[in-house]
Amino acid sequence: MKTLILIRHAKAEEHSLSKSDFFRDLQPKGIERAKRIAESLSNKIKVDNKTLVISSTANRAIQTAEIFCPILQYPTSEILQTENIYEAHFTEILNVINAVDDQYEQVLVFGHNPGLSNLTNYLSHSEVELATSNAAILKLEDGINFSMLSGGTATLIGLVK
Prior knowledge:
The protein has 161 residues and is α/β, with parallel strands linked by helices.
């Protein structure tokens, strides 16, 4: 059974006129919380060569992925970065996931709200709002692969917060 883990980026700098939203960096308290949640997630999942990590290219998302991956024992050099997750509607994030090769059993996606929360709710018919650094763990229904993933074809089995 395939697993999808949707992870919202850690707490970032406040919006300002001096820096584009895309380039906002993580705050120290966001980094600490991300480390704590990554440790907790590492006790719930096993990362192996059938795992793929995908991240938005926005600073705060890729920085969050770079915190989680060493803790989960996934090489940061293998993170697939895509602009298609930044400021994306949940259907655009789903398009990225639908393109994942069938060889992968587990996919972790680092991105932004409201897209990730909306995607979690669409896939699992749940009602969650992911806070910063939170991870939603979804199991795909039997016989469903990432290319077939759509509304109601996954079960929310846990939130790591």
